[in-house]
Write a structure and sequence with these properties.
23% of the residues lie in helices and 35% in strands. It is of the alpha+beta class and 360 residues long. Bound molecules: adenosine-5'-triphosphate and magnesium ion. Magnesium ion (MG) binds next to helix 1.
């Protein structure tokens, strides 16, 4: 188990820069998730830590060793790929033993490690099967087992759940969380799925466009997004954004006027927010409630019943649309006039450069 430090790491393919000056520390034993849209550089960053891709600038340290010039085999970390890459003609036991035989580990030590990994991963009853006789989730566990037996300092996973169907994805996600609780080894997990990131991570690295947007715990990222990108990417459905007509100050906190002329009192310190006429208001759907006594009125364009809650896409007088929440048993219908109650205390503001301001 070791920490992993990246200092000003950069990468370009030909003339295209894909990673720019990334600096971060992944703590020893931490479960870190790299989250971001397709093409933002998550896999490239992971592959550079594993040594499968060279870096063009900066340094990578694992524990007290600088590793960026070392080949993958000397970095003492294990990478598990999305497609598992198991040997089809070998049994589960042979797949897990193979790498250790190659480095001439004594046979009884190999047997001991494979048995321990099979126990941890609940693969004991499948140990003599071939990959073709396993489900996707079981194959996934064998691929992890093959990594565990090497006793690496860290595990790297690149979208390990993306091949699984929805139900298995959720179950395997829980297995990952339990595996980390048991092993307490440093893990880096790449995904573009914000729910996977929120549920698994000790901390999330939100990436976009070659760069880190924010590093923080799931709730820090959710409650205090650093940028409009993070605010929009994390949370489902996405945060509502409305242009602000005017901002003013009340008791040191920002009061905003929205396009439909309604006023919302926020809990955001006025002195921090630039008053340049280019401020955007952000509010999550769960902070916009359908309520008979709400101050804002509109018409329900779309009603989505999710069982435990209902989402309403409400068109305001100025034609802007807010996604609002109602109870699961809501009797709201498309076309209904509705009133909305916005919880201004949980609002966010964004300036012209998309920097975010949240409640104190
Ligand atoms: N070998 C390569 N040569 C040239 N460009 C590459 C190469 N590998 C990746 N890229 C580019 O680098 C960028 C980052 O790719 P990367 O695979 O790291 O993205 P990602 O965040 O993992 O995306 P996804 O979620 O789709 O897997 C992309 O624009 C990609 O096209
Ligand atoms: Mg990728």
């Amino acid at each position: 188990m070791a920490d992993i430090r990246l200092v000003n790491v950069s990468k370009q393919f030909g003339s295209v820069r894909v990673i720019e000056n990334v600096t971060m520390t992944i703590g020893s034993g931490e479960f870190m998730v790299f989250l971001g849209p397709s093409g933002c550089g998550k896999s490239t960053l992971l592959r550079m830590i594993a040594g499968l891709e060279e870096i063009d600038g900066g340094e990578i340290h694992i524990g007290d060793r600088r590793v960026d010039a070392l080949p993958p085999s000397e970095r003492e970390i294990a990478m598990v790929f999305q497609n598992y890459a198991l040997y089809p003609h070998m049994s589960v036991r042979e797949n897990m033993s193979f790498g250790l035989q190659n480095i001439r580990m004594p046979r009884d030590e190999i047997a001991r490690r494979v048995a321990a990994a099979a126990k941890t991963l609940e693969l004991e009853h499948l140990i003599d099967r071939k990959p073709g006789q396993l489900s996707g989730g079981q194959r996934q566990r064998v691929a992890i087992g093959r990594a565990i037996v090497r006793d690496p300092k860290a595990f790297l996973f690149d979208e390990p759940l993306s091949n699984l169907d929805a139900g298995l994805r959720v179950r395997t996600r829980i297995e990952f969380a339990q595996l980390h609780q048991r092993m307490k080894t440093t893990m880096i997990f790449v995904t573009h799925d914000q729910i996977e990131a929120m549920t698994l991570a000790d901390r999330i690295v939100v990436m976009n466009n070659r760069k880190i947007e924010q590093i923080g715990t799931p709730m820090e990222i959710y409650n205090r997004p650093a940028s409009r990108f993070v605010a929009a990417f994390v949370g489902s459905p996405s945060m509502n954004f409305l242009p602000v007509q005017q901002i003013s100050d009340r008791d040191g906190k920002v009061l905003v006027r929205l396009p439909d002329n309604s006023e919302i009192q926020t809990n955001i310190v006025s002195s921090r927010v630039p008053d340049d006429g280019k401020v955007t208001f952000g509010i999550r759907p769960e902070s916009v409630k359908v309520s008979a006594t709400g101050a804002i009125s509109g018409k329900a364009d779309v009603v989505e019943r999710l069982g435990e809650r209902t989402l309403a896409y409400v068109r305001l007088a100025d034609n802007s649309v807010l996604i609002a929440e109602d109870e699961g048993q809501s009797n709201l219908n498309v076309g209904d006039q509705v009133r909305l109650d916005i919880d201004g205390a949980s609002a966010h503001l964004f300036d012209a450069r998309d920097v975010a301001y949240s409640a104190a």
